[in-house]
Amino acid sequence: MNKLSLGHFPTPIQPVHGLDLNPAQHLFVKRDDYSGIEVSGNKIRKLEYCLAEAIDKKYDVIVTTGAIQSNHCRATAAACARLGLSCELLLSGDASGQIESNLFLDLAFGAKVTFIPPDTKRELFYEQCLTTLKNSGRKPYFIPVGASNALGSHGYRDCFLEILEYEREHGMTFDLIALAVGSGGTYAGLWYENARHNLDKAILGFSVSADSAAFETIIADIVTDMAEQEERSLPVDKSSIRINDLYIGTGYAKSTPEELSFILDTAKKTGILFDPCYTGKAFLGLTSELAAGRLEQYHSILFIHTGGLSGWTVQQMSRALERSEQVS
Ligand SMILES: Cc1ncc(COP(=O)(O)O)c(C=O)c1O
User: Fold this and answer.
1) Contact 79, 109 (CB under 8 A)
2) 186 lines ligand 1 (CB under 6 A)
3) Catalytic residue positions?
4) In this structure, which CATH number among 3.90.770.10, 3.40.50.1100, 1.10.3720.10, 3.30.70.260 belongs to the domain 13-37+150-321?
5) What local confidence, expressed as pLDDT, does residue 111 receive?
6) In this structure, are residues 140 and 134 in contact, taking their beta carbons and an 8 Å threshold?
């Protein structure tokens, strides 16, 4: 399978200090937020595969979709600019809102942004845009939300292999890998490689949107497609797809004051900053589950920081600092 080299890999793994954890448990973080600056985060691993296919097959415009502050869309815009490809983003959200954060970066990297009109059937809208491009003589390559198809998810097989390499080098084994789940591809790639190596690492995803049953199905479908592509027999036992949906809070891309305070508190204690939409919620979930003793059987725990820092909006920043007395 062809692949471009767009991110900085392998990303480092660091111990997390400063948290009050059970002394028998050791927490590490894999810094996939260090995969780049413009392309920072998990999406670039997936785009290395999707954009390779687009270039190989001579597509001339990349079309993808996501929410207004989508990290995937921002990474796609940045990667396309680097590769000299046109990029069109179909975004959902409030078109009259402030141009900031990832939306600013989308435009800075030259992507054409179209807002999906409210109450429009998404799939139909994508089809219309692709047809318009084809009718004007273009050859559009469509990447689904989060690049969470079988091809994109291969990027997280690579991440899993980096984790195994780290274990070999350091003579240790992680028994639990935890991460945020938004469209399922990151989880699917890790699960696939875990199963392929017959390893029994627990992989625990914290949903930021749908309920656990929905994600179990989405992830099982992606894994099945990946196995089919490779003509491999890899039966998917859904009970090994572990998704916790208790930390979604008030909904996708919505933050409670408690979540925002947790992120800033963690930044002060550990020197690691998470984003409010994905990694902040997932890390809150992981540390809450650890504190409640519900993950007692695990001793070496790896949290994957999947990035997202450029998604912090001005409103989220000021809400996070509302109760802070640091500025006088
Ligand atoms: C920063 C960040 N972390 C985690 C995720 C979740 O990854 P996935 O969509 O592959 O589940 C996303 C995207 O959805 C993201 O932007």
Assistant:
1) no
2) yes
3) 70
4) 3.40.50.1100
5) 98
6) yes
